[in-house]
Amino acid sequence: MFPIWATGIVFAAVYVQMPTLSVEQGTMLNKTIGSFRIPADSVSSSNVVNVIFWVTVYDRFIVLIARKVTGKERGFTEIQRMGIGLFISVLCMSAAAMVEIKRLELGRELDLVHKLEAVPLSILWQIPNISC
């Protein structure tokens, strides 16, 4: 039981941290797409669209394939679904880290580290890490 509980803490930390990071990171990224300006705190709304999309994909395709592979009615067991979710969380945090590394690198190159100017990196780069 302890390993499941311990990994649950990691997942909870990731889950709580992602919206905060996306807003903080988004305030210092380029928020314009053509003439449209995206507010930094609205990028997290892409999560809703992503959940609707992935729930449909999961129900219609992934469960059907998993049923054939595992022979179980629900496709994956609960523990397998938890493991897959934790793995996806690791991928999302890795994407967030890569965007942050690139943002800081550009900030240093352009001497924007201690200035309240946006780094010329599109806010759309946050969508993969927000979508989890």
Layout of secondary structure:
Blueprint: H1 2-27, E1 29-30, E2 32-33, E3 36-37, H2 46-70, H3 78-109, E4 119-122, H4 127-130
Parallel strand pairs: 1-4
Antiparallel strand pairs: 2-3
Concise description?
Keywords: Membrane, Transmembrane, Transmembrane helix. The chain has 132 residues and is mainly alpha-helical.
What would your notes on this structure say?
There is one protein chain. This protein has 132 residues and is mostly helical. The protein has one domain. The protein is built from 4 helices and 4 strands, in the order αβββααβα. The strands form 2 sheets. Strands 1-4 form a two-stranded parallel ribbon. It has a two-stranded antiparallel ribbon with strand order 2-3. A hairpin with a 2-residue loop joins strand 2 (32-33) and strand 3. Helix 1 runs parallel beside helix 3 (78-109). It is elongated, with a radius of gyration of 18 Å. The mean pLDDT is 85.
Secondary structure class reads mainly alpha
Rg calculated over all Cα atoms: 18 Å
Unreliable runs: none
Please provide the count of β strands.
Answer: 4
Distance between the termini: 25 Å
Helix count equals 4
Order of helices and strands: HEEEHHEH
Strand content: 5-15%
Strand order of the largest sheet: 1-4
Count of discrete structural domains: 1
Tell me the overall shape: elongated
GO cellular component, one term: membrane
GO molecular function, one term: transmembrane transporter activity
Family: Belongs to the major facilitator superfamily. Proton-dependent oligopeptide transporter (POT/PTR) (TC 2.A.17) family.
Transmembrane segments: 82-101
